[in-house]
Amino acid sequence: MTSTDRAIAAYLGLAIGDALGSTVEFMTPREIVAQYGVHDTLCGGGWLHLKPGHVTDDTTMSLALGDSILRCGRVEALAAAQAFDVWMHAKPVDIGNTVRRNLLQFRKTGNPEAPYSDHDAGNGAAMRVLPVALATLDQPEESVRAASRAQAHVTHHCALSDAACECLIFMVQDALRGADKNHLLHTYAHPLVAQYPEFRFRAVRQSQNPSGYVVDTLQAVFQSFFDTDDMYDCLVDVVNRGGDADTTGAIAGMLAGALYGRGGIPDAWLGALDADTRRACETQAWALSALV
Ligand code: MN
Ligand code: MN
Q1: Which of 34, 236, 237, 254 has the most beta carbons within 10 angstroms of its beta carbon?
Q2: CA 1 – ligand 2 centroid, Å
Q3: pLDDT > 90 in the chain, percent
Q4: How far, in Å, from the CA of 57 to the mean position of ligand 1?
């Protein structure tokens, strides 16, 4: 399997996780069981009343960022901010509070870097890192980190968010090169916890109802990703925890897609994903992979 095949699978996994999770976003695990038993279909609905197979900001902001990277030939903060601004103008189905606040600020100031705030530790930058991971594959570590921060700081200028974004990017990149799950755990997940103990996900309670706080999000994602062996089990496990399920689904789907590849995506999910979204993800993953 080539890294481009895995890149396409990561993008499809992101969109599938978003679509799957959106149905149960903001529900508790107990409410999900009562309404769906085990939720495992791209049936739409949820608080956004989506059509089956449709996606939310996690996927559409990633695609907007990816388009800006393809236009510039590299990750560019101003181009990313402009792409997000155009995206916000088009009235997306959902938008995070921190994203909205800092994009409105960008409209006023033209500065694509939000002011530093420890409070802006939401998952809104981490949910859209995939195009950066693809565009900077095989670049030196410091350039990858700089590219990550350029896109992230448009809306989330915060140390915990940065640490999460960079950890996810390096995990995706090593998975694209064929690394196994154990390597990702020891090389990236454990060091993240060593540096920021908030992210501890072992020997703690199973994360239920993960919030939009990037720490909650990554705890749920890592528990599901490291304790399962295929994309189906990983995504079903994480979205049935409820909470910010479209975003935990999107991030877990990205990791699972990169690790397990195209063949690991359940046919029923691929067939149910909105056709335009599927095409956009495949096309962009291919184009970003060709950039490096
Ligand atoms: Mn969303
Ligand atoms: Mn969400």
Answers
A1: 254
A2: 31
A3: 98
A4: 4
